[in-house]
Amino acid sequence: MLSLREHIGHELLWMPGVTAMVLDRDRTRMLAVRRADDGAWTPVTGIIDPGEEPAIAAVREVAEEAGIRCRAQRLLDVRTLPPITYDNGDRAQYLDLCFLCEADGSEEPFPADGENTAARWFPLDDPPPMNTRFTEQLALARAPGTETQFRR
């Protein structure tokens, strides 16, 4: 990323990203992390590495950010996020691929990298406060057999 930014500066960069909506095996709890940059509770999110399969990226991000092993089960949601500008002036826009992932729930999550200050399980009937995107994606995860959602 740094090498690419040396060439394009702060120009808008199109990035593939993943959201991992991780539920425990009993489907009674969801995993959420508290972001270090703004304090918001969110599912695990991250950027897909060049050449990486998106589902593998989701599983990798969960392990890196929360120390939890999980398995991607299905694609829940595909959407383009609004452009954002970071504090350093870099601009990016993300294609978000949201995966339903399952963990056995026996591991206790923890903030495994510097991107988050906390990681924990929340009851599905009492999730943390989240923005509209993540609330919609959680609803898709809770609905059995729901087809992948696309914005039209």
Structural notes for this entry:
The protein is of the alpha+beta class and 152 residues long. The chain has one domain (2-144): Nucleoside Triphosphate Pyrophosphohydrolase, CATH 3.90.79. It is 20% helix and 39% strand. The protein is built from three helices and nine strands. Strands 1, 4, 5, 6, 7 and 9 form a six-stranded mixed sheet that branches. Strands 3-2-8 form a three-stranded antiparallel sheet, with no helix packed on it. A hairpin with a 5-residue loop joins strand 2 (29-35) and strand 3 (41-42). The longest helix is centred in the middle third of the chain and has 13 residues, at 54-66. It starts with a helix and ends with a strand. Keywords: Hydrolase. This is ADP-ribose pyrophosphatase. Residues 13-144 form the Nudix hydrolase domain. GO terms for molecular function: hydrolase activity. Belongs to the Nudix hydrolase family.
How would you summarize the topology of this molecule?
Layout: H1 2-8, E1 13-24, E2 29-35, E3 41-42, E4 44-47, H2 54-66, E5 71-80, E6 84-85, E7 91-103, E8 116-123, H3 132-142, E9 149-150
Family: Belongs to the Nudix hydrolase family.
GO molecular function: hydrolase activity
Domain Nudix hydrolase: 13-144
CATH structural class: Alpha Beta
Question: What about the largest sheet?
Answer: 6 strands, mixed
Q: What is CATH's topology name?
A: Nucleoside Triphosphate Pyrophosphohydrolase
Quote the average pLDDT.
94
Sequence of secondary-structure elements = HEEEEHEEEEHE
CATH superfamily membership: Nucleoside Triphosphate Pyrophosphohydrolase
Second-tier CATH architecture: Alpha-Beta Complex
The portion of residues assigned to helices is: 10-25%
Count of helical stretches: 3
Approximate strand percentage: 35-45%
Radius of gyration, in angstroms, nearest whole number:
15 Å
Q: What separation lies between the terminal Cα atoms?
A: 31 Å
**How many β-strand stretches?**
9
Spans of at least 5 consecutive residues whose pLDDT stays below 50 are none
Assign the structural class, choosing from mainly alpha, mainly beta, alpha/beta, alpha+beta, or little secondary structure: alpha+beta
Tally of structural domains: 1
Shape: globular
